[in-house]
Automatic annotation (TrEMBL):
Substrate binds at residue 326. Pathway: Amino-acid biosynthesis; L-isoleucine biosynthesis; L-isoleucine from 2-oxobutanoate: step 2/4; Amino-acid biosynthesis; L-valine biosynthesis; L-valine from pyruvate: step 2/4. Its main location: mitochondrion. It comes from Linnemannia hyalina. Its EC number is 1.1.1.86. This is ketol-acid reductoisomerase (NADP(+)). InterPro entries: 6-PGluconate_DH-like_C_sf, 6PGD_dom2, KARI, KARI_C, KARI_N, NAD(P)-bd_dom_sf. Mg(2+) 2 binds at residues 264, 300, 304. Belongs to the ketol-acid reductoisomerase family. The keyword Amino-acid biosynthesis applies.
Length: 404
């Protein structure tokens, strides 16, 4: 397999295929950017954004035979955003990863943005990043009162818990914004039923808030989904797209609240997090049971995947990977992938049903709002961290040249 990786690497350096927007997030945490002062970063963002604007301009894109409309940032330069929201106060509730990333990007786009959060860790973080108590930083109620667009970026559990506190401020003419369809779609469980006389929109960046911020600073923009749940003003979609660009997305793909939350909950339980940990463990345990050393089992399961093959798949696709590995690896992968698919597809179907019937939501709300939530979580996380596979991973990562 090392031969496979070497062959593949040689190939990719020759073809120099452009990286997809998504795969660019691999390079998002640029050490150069994190060492620049904040003022310099803002300036950098604007300069890079302007460069980026001049080079893009796509609308309808053929995705494997299906044409979809994609909205992109070049149609929404900062001046247009400022004009669109000139009479608005954007109230970002919560200063977690999404609240922080989206609010800083809105601020760098020169929009009128304020933060609403409770006193504590988020409040302190906001102060340290230049939000001024009483001017641009408020307790949640006050921010809701001042805002014309209420951007609900509290944790999903808090959105449900604080709904009765927030709802009275959602008066006619205001807009309610989410980054997840969770609260609204599972209203039977969350209690979040927006008033009928306001616009309700969604922009869901496809990645963490840290990536939202870093890609914006690099002048790129993360992929995002955009959806409208209620359009009272007749302008909800246009404003949702503009807001999506304002918070730092580069491309916006149309969806609905329901499709967004179903695919998101399904994906993170599946290949993004749950399934991948399950597959890593299964492969590792079998290797260990057959006498392979921890380092060999880890290298052949995780290290080679994440350091060599996955970046290549991200850049070029699995079709390219299959066409550019050793014939031995190629034969084996071609013979085995259908068996893995056949075995796993029923499980994925079961997972989808569990998302669609609300089981996953109820479990999440119940577990995440339990009084002993943090203590129980720590036990579960420690179990993963203490597993031999991830302890081996720590040692293996130390040997990487960049960590020497
Ligand atoms: N993370 C992602 O990758 C991602 C991507 C796309 C969309 N989204 C969506 O974006 C939204 C925000 O996500 P996030 O990851 O940024 O959220 P988060 O880190 O879980 O929480 C965000 C904020 O919620 C506040 N909060 C939690 N419980 C509270 C309570 N009882 N009262 C008042 N404030 C409370 C936290 O304040 P304290 O610091 O005071 O606890 C924090 O400021 C969610 O709808 C999420 O699904 C997330």
């Amino acid at each position: 397999m090392n031969l496979l990786a070497r062959t593949a690497f040689r190939q990719v350096t020759r073809v120099a295929t452009p990286l997809s927007t998504r795969s660019l997030s691999l390079f998002a945490r640029s050490p150069i950017l994190t060492h620049l002062p904040r003022a310099a970063l803002s300036k950098t963002a604007v300069t890079l954004n302007n460069n980026w604007l001049q080079t893009r301009g796509m609308k309808t894109i053929d995705f494997g035979g299906t044409k979809e409309v994609v909205y992109e940032r070049s149609d929404y330069p900062p001046a247009k955003l400022q004009e669109t929201f000139k009479n608005d106060t954007l109230s970002v509730l919560g200063y977690g990863p999404q609240g922080r990333g989206q609010a800083l990007n809105l601020r760098d786009n020169n929009l009128n943005v304020i933060i609403g959060t409770r006193k504590g860790a988020s409040w302190d973080k906001a102060v340290s990043e230049g939000w001024i108590p009483g001017k641009t930083l408020f307790e949640i109620n006050e921010a809701c009162e001042k805002g014309t667009i209420i951007m609900n970026l509290l944790s999903d559990a808090a959105q449900s818990k604080l709904w009765n506190q927030i709802k009275p401020y959602l008066t006619k003419g205001k807009t309610l914004y989410f980054s997840h369809g969770f609260s609204v779609i599972y209203a039977d469980d969350t209690g979040v039923i927006p008033p009928k006389d306001i616009d309700v929109i969604l922009v869901a960046p496809k990645g963490s808030g840290t990536t939202v911020r870093n890609l914006f600073l690099e002048g790129r923009g993360i992929n995002g989904s955009v959806a409208v749940y209620q359009d009272v003003s007749g302008k909800a979609k246009e404003r949702a797209i503009a807001l999506g660009v304002g918070v730092g997305t580069g491309y916006l793909y149309e969806t609905t609240f329901k499709q967004e939350v179903y695919s998101d909950l399904y994906g993170e339980r599946g290949v993004l997090m749950g399934a991948i940990q399950g597959l890593f463990l299964a492969q590792y345990e079998v290797l260990r049971a057959h006498g392979h050393s921890p380092s060999e089992a880890f290298n052949e399961t995780v290290e080679e995947a994440t350091q060599s093959l996955y970046p290549l798949i991200g850049a070029n696709g699995m079709d390219w990977m299959y066409a550019n590995c050793s014939t031995t690896a190629q034969r084996g992968a071609l013979d085995w992938f259908r068996r893995f698919q056949k075995l796993n597809q029923p499980l994925f179907e079961e997972l989808y049903q569990s998302v669609a019937d609300g089981t996953e939501t109820r479990r999440s709300l119940e577990k995440n709002s339990a009084p002993n939530y943090r203590a129980e979580l720590e036990v579960e996380l420690a179990e993963i961290a203490d597993h031999e596979m991830w302890r081996t991973g720590k040692a293996v990562r130390k040997l990487r040249p960049e960590n020497q």
